[in-house]
Amino acid sequence: MAVDFIDVDNIMISSEIFEQGFQCDLNKCKGACCTMESAFGAPINKKEVESIEKNLSIITEYLPSEHSAEIKKNGFWISKFDQLMTRSLNNRACVFVVFEGDVAKCSIEKAFNDSKINFNKPISCHLFPIRIGDFNGKVLRFEKYHECSPALEKGSLSQTNIFEFCKDALVREFGESWYDKTMEAIKK
């Protein structure tokens, strides 16, 4: 599959985002995107750090004691390579992971879904598997991750592509009119 890009309002979007089927299947992947082996967690921005700090006491109510203790001892974010990121626990799970059975979920998102806070999880998490790069402007690309193969299968079966799957996150980041304009552009 050749990768082309389309430009919508100076945002370059990889054609893979429109062509690749994708729909999370948590029963199979177990929330692998939240437990990637890494010294760092998810990319975050300064505004997100502020929102998390403001709501931290509520968010930590959802966390296992080991995660809460890590946040209390070292904080929840780190700066590496001029990028803010959530901390990783044991080079494995994002510090905000809470397990439901054997499925990793986000404590921030759980607090948001329970209407206890007005901030959803970081946009980098909400957009996954889309990653935003900056090459003299924003570039949206598909980040391939082996553990997401069940999502590729489920998306192909349901005929849901990455762009459709990530609609809420894309609207959150770029607005409804940008999303609609992009849908029109790909129909041409």
Description:
- There is one protein chain.
- 41% of the residues lie in helices and 23% in strands.
- The chain has 188 residues and is of the alpha+beta class.
- It folds into two domains: 1-22 and 129-188, no CATH class; 30-119, no CATH class.
- The strands form three sheets. Strands 1-2-10-9 form a four-stranded mixed beta sheet. Strands 3, 4, 5 and 6 form a four-stranded antiparallel beta sheet that branches. Strands 7-8 form a two-stranded antiparallel sheet.
- Strand 9 (130-134) and strand 10 (138-142) form a beta hairpin.
- Helix 9 crosses helix 10.
- The chain starts with a strand and ends with a helix.
List the main descriptive attributes of the protein structure presented here:
4-stranded antiparallel β-sheet, 10 helices, 10 strands, single chain, 188 residues, 4-stranded mixed β-sheet, globular, alpha+beta
- Radius of gyration of CA atoms, rounded to a whole number: 17 Å
Listing every helix as H and every strand as E from the N terminus to the C terminus, the arrangement reads: EEHHEHHEEEEEHHEEHHHH
> How many strands, which pairing sense, and closed or not: the largest β-sheet?
4 strands, mixed
Computed structural class: alpha+beta
Q: What is the count of β-strands?
A: 10
Bulk shape: globular
- Indicate the mean pLDDT: 93
Distance between the termini: 19 Å
Question: What count of domains describes the coordinates?
Answer: 2
Q: If helices are DSSP runs of H or I spanning 4 or more residues, what is the number of helices?
A: 10
Can you tell me the residue ranges where pLDDT is under 50 for at least 5 consecutive residues?
none
Which bin fits the share of residues in helices? 40-55%
Q: Strand percentage, roughly?
A: 15-25%
**Major sheet: order of its strands?**
1-2-10-9
